Amino acid sequence: MDTKTVTKTTPKRSTTLMRLLKFVVGTYKAPFIMAVIAIIISAAAAVEGSLFLQRLIDDYIVPLTKQKSPNFTPLLQAILIMAAIYLVGVIATFVFTQTMAILGQRLQKKIRDDMFTHMQSLPIIYFDQNDYGDVMSRYTNDVDTLMQMISQSIPQFLNSVFMLIFVISGMISLSPMLTLVTLVIFLLSIGIVRTLTTRSSHYFKEQQKQLGKVNGFVEEMLNGLKVVKVFSHEPAVKKEFDEYNDVYQYDSAKANAYATMLFPIMGNVGNVLYVLIAIFGGIVAINGWSVLTLGSIAAFLQLSRSFSQPISQISQQLNSIVLALAGAERIFQLQDSPIEVDDGQVTIVPAADGTGNNWNWQVPQTDGSVKQVPVEGRIVFDHVNFGYLPGQTVLHDINVSVEPGQKVALVGQTGAGKTTISSMLNRFYEINSGTITYDGIDIRQIRKDDLRHSMAIVLQSTNLFSTSVRENIRYGRLSATDDEVEKAAELAHAEDFINDLSQGYATQIDGDGSDLSQGQRQLLAIARANVADTPVMILDEATSSIDTRTERMVQAGMDNLMKGRTTFVIAHRLSTIANSDLILVIDHGHIIEQGNHQQLIAKHGEYYQLYTGKKSLN
Amino acid sequence: MIRTLMRSIRQYRKLSILAPTLVIIECAIETFIPFIMGNIIDNGLMKSNLNYIIHYGLILLLMAIVSLICGGAASWTAAHAGAGFATNLRHDLFYHIQEFSFANIDHFSGSSLVTRLTTDITNVQNAYQMIIRMAVRAPMVLIFSVIMAFNVSSQLALIFAILVPILGVILAVILHFGRPLFRQVFRRYDTLNRVVRENVRGIRVVKTYVREGEEINKFKKSSKSIADVFTKAQRIMSLNAPAMQLVINASLLLLSWFGAQMIVGGTFQTGQLVSMYSYSNSILFSLNMLAMIFTQLSISQASGDRIVEVLRDQPTIIDPKNPIEKVDNGDIEFQNVNYSFAESRHPILNNVNLNIKSGQVIGIIGETGSGKSSLVQLIPRLYDVSHGKISVAGHNVRHYDLTALRDNVAMVLQNSVLFSGTIAENLRWGNPDATDEQMIRAAKIAQADDFINEFEDGYNTHVEQGGNNVSGGQQQRLTIARALLKNPKILILDDSTSAVDTHTEQQIRQGLREDLPDTTKIIISQRIVSIQDADQIIVMDHGSIQDVGTHDELVQRNQMYKEIYDYQQKAGEDN
To answer: How far is B387 from chain A (nearest CA, A)?
Structure first.
C-alpha cells in the first residue's frame, strides 16, 4: 500500500548519529565523560604494561646478569610501581564497564518510556499506516540493538581506537623502523578486514531479507494450517517451504562464513606480524643498523600482539554501530511523528443540579466567564468532508442531525464509510471541512479527553487486556464499583459464561483473550461500554459474532441501555436496526438515503432492495 | 534433547567433524609459535646468529600461514555446517508440524510455532556453529598452552596453577549470580512486549476510554522492572573485564619478578620469559572464552528445548496400516460418539447417534459452543472421537487413508483462509489438475464467477495474504468453490455463508442440490432460512443432539427451534 510509504523519510546517517550522541551525552553528560576518561586511562595502562617489558629487560635483567652480587631492590621497586599502574588500569576498567552498564539500562528505559509516552498521543492514522509488527519491533529489536551499541559497541570502539593510538605511539617510541613494517601489515589487514566485512554484511542483508520471506511463508502457512490439512495440501506446502529454506541456507552460510573468518584470519595476521618483527628486528639489531635493544624487540613483540585485535574490533563495532543507527532512525521516526491536535477549551464536569445526563459542558466565554451547557447528546454533521490522505475524499458532504436519545443506524456495503463516519465523532480523525457539533459546540473546541469521556464505542474487533475479566470490564470507567461491573455484565448477558470460567470475574485473560470465543469477547466489550455509562454510544458491528439466540437476549439489554442515550449503530443484520429513529444508507462515502424504516421501505430505494434481500451487502 | 537435535546433522556430519579438526591443528600450531619465538630470541638474537633467525623465522612464517589457512577454513566449514544443520532442522520441524492433527495444532498456538521455526532455530544454529569451532578452540588453546608453559619452565608454570583456579572461581561466581538474573530479564521482556502489543492493537480502545495515562504508567512500571534486573545482571557480568585484567596483570608481574631472578640465577633465558608472557595471555583469555561460551550455550539451550518439545509431540492422528483408499459414497453414521479435548474434563460431544444417507442435505443449528463444529470435524478425522465410532460409506473413518478420506470429505471451515496468490491458484488447492472449465463451473455453483469476472484480472486477480482485498462474503464464496473442486462425496459448510446475503445464499444451495445430487451436504448455520429445506435438521444443545427432524416437524414440536425461528421470522417480516 502506498499510504505506508508516505511517512517514510530517510535522514542522513550522520544526522542520526549526531542526534543520538546528543541524546546520550546530553542526558547523562557527567557519567559519559567519566566513562570516556576511564576508557583512555585503561587503554594507556595496558600499553604501558607492554612497554614495561623493555625496561625490565634492558634496565634490570641485562644489568643484573652482569653484577656479581645482584641487588634486586630496584627491580622490586619498578615492579611495585608497575603494579600500581596496573591497578589504576583495572580500576579504570571497572569504572567504565560499570558506568556503561548502568548508563545503558537507564538510557534504554528512558528511550522506551519516551517512545511509549509519545505513541499514546499519536493519532489513529499512524497506526493505520504502520504495521503492528513494525511498531512492535521498535520496542524490541531496535531498542535492543541500539542499547547493544551504546553499552558495548561504543565503549569497545573507543577503547580500540585509543588502544591503537597508544600502541602505535608506543611502537614509534621503541623503533620507528619496526613501526614501518607494522604499518605495512596494518594497511594489508585493513584491506582484508574491509573485504570480509563488506562481503559478510552483504550476505547478512540478503539473509535478513530471506529470513523475512521464510517467516512470512511460515506465518501464513501455520496460521492456515487447518485449511492445509483439510485440503491434504501438505506435500505442496512442504515443497515450497524447502525452496525458501534452501535459499536462506545459502545466504546464511556465506554471511556467517565471512563474519567468523575475520577473527582467525586477523589473529593469524597478528602471528605473521609477530614473526616478521622478530626477523627484521633480529637483522637490524645484529647488523647494528639501528639502536635496537633486546628489550625493545621483546616489548615490540608484545605490543604487536595487541595490535591486530583492535583493528578487527573497530571494524566489527563499526558494523554494529551502522546496524544500530538504522534502528535509531526508526525510533526517532516514531518520536518525530506528529501527535494528535488538541486545542479544545471546553471541558466536561458533573452537573451541580443532577439534571440531564448529570454532566455539563463548561464553555469558556470570550469575556473570561464560563457557560454551563448540559450534556444531552445532540449531534449535528454539517457539510462534512473527510479523507484519510490529502487529496483524497472518503466522505462527501455528510449532513445529519441527531436529536438527544435517538438511535441512528448506518447501513451500507463493506467500505462504504460507515465506520469512518462514526470515527469522526470522537475525533479519531480530523475532518477536512464542515463542522460537527455536540450539543451545539463544535467538537474541535472540546478537549479531546473530555470529548472521548462522553462517548463509548464498541468496535467490531474486540481488544482485551491481560488482566482479570473484572478489570477488563472496568476499563470502561475506572471508578466503577464491583457491583456496577457485575451489573453491566449482566446487562450484556455476559455473566453466564463468566460464571462458567474457572475463577469467574477474577479469571485472568491471557494474551489477547484467545481462549474466549469471538462472541464472548464481544459480550465483554459490550459490558465495558455499559460500565462507561456515557451520553453517546457507538456500536460498530458489536454483535456480529454472537449467535442469534444470545443476540436476541443481548438486544433486549442493549435497547434498555440505549434509552436516553444517543446511539450510533452499525450492523450487518438489518433486523437489528429496523426500530431505529434514523437510518442512514451510505454508499461510496455519500449518504444516499435517510429516514426511518417505514419511510425508507415506502421509498422503494436502496434500503428496500437491501432489506428484502434483492441486493447484497457485500 | 541433544540427541533429537543431532538427527538433523545428516549430510553435514563430515563438515561438522572437519571444522573442529582444523581448529585443533590451528591451536596446536598457534601455541607452538611463542615457543620457537623464545628460541629465536635466545639462540639467534642473544647470540647474534643471523642464520638461525632467518632459518627459524621462515619456519615460523610458514606455520603462521598454515595456521591462518586452517583457521579460515575452520570458520568456513563451521559456518556451512551450521547453516546446513539449521536448514535440516527447520525442514524437519516444518515437515513434522505438517503431520500434526488439529489437536496438536491447538496445543501449540500458531505464533509460538512461528517463533520456534525462526528465532529458536537461529539461536540453535549459532550455538552449533560455536560448539564445533569456539567450544573446541578455547579448551584446546588452554590445554596446549598449559603443556607448553610447563615445557618451558615447570617452576614458573606453577604461577598458573595458582592463578587459573582463582580466575575460574571468580568467573564461576559471576556466572552463578548473573545467569539467573538474565533468565528473569527474558521473562520480564515478555510482559513488556505484551503491554506494547495490547496497546498497539487496542489503541482505539485505549483512546476511546481515555486510558493513555494509566497505560503509560503500566508500561513504565514494566520497563522499570526490566531496567532494575537488567542493570543488576549487566553490572555483575561487567565485573568480568576488570577481574580478567587483574589476574592477567598479576601473572605478568609475577612472571617478571620470578623470571628475572631465574634469569639472573642463570637457570632461565630472556626469550623463554617472552614466550611465557604469551602463554599467560592465551591461558587466561581462553578461560574467559570458556565462560562466555558457557553463558551463550545456556541461552540457546532454552531454544533447543522449545524445538525438541515440538519434535517430540507425536501427531495424534496418523494413517492406519493397510488403509482403505476409496470412499464409495456419502453415507455417514455416528454410533455413541463422545468427544472431549484431552485436558478438559467435561465432554464437548455426548453420546451422539446419527444416520445420514448419501446425497441428503443436513442442517445443523445450535448456540455458540453447543458442539456443532466439533461434530462435523470428526467426520474427516480432523479430531478423533474419544468413544464410539464414526463410519463413512460403511467403514470406520479410522480405517481410511487420511488423504483419501479428506479428499472425499470436503470441509469449509468457519474461519477459512485464502492464501496469497491468484484466485485461480487458490481455487486449485481443491484440485491442482482442474481444468479451467471445471474451475469456472465450481465458481459458478458457489456464485463466485460473477464477481470474479468483475475484477480487472478475473481469475488471475492476486489475493493478498489473509485475503484482505476481497470482502468477507466474497471470501466465503471462494472457499466454497475451492472445496467444490475436490468433487467430494461429502461437503460440509461450517457457517460458511454468514456474510453472504440470503438471496445469493439461496442460489448457492440450489446449485449444490442440482449439480451435486449424490454428494451429502451438511450445512451449519445461524439462520433458519439456510437450512429449512434440509432433509434432516439437527438441533444441538450443550454437546448433545436435542432433536432431529424436518423443518415442519421441528417448528411443531421443538421449543428452542421455534423460538429462534419466530425471532428470525419477526425480524424478517417487520414491515
So the answer is: 23
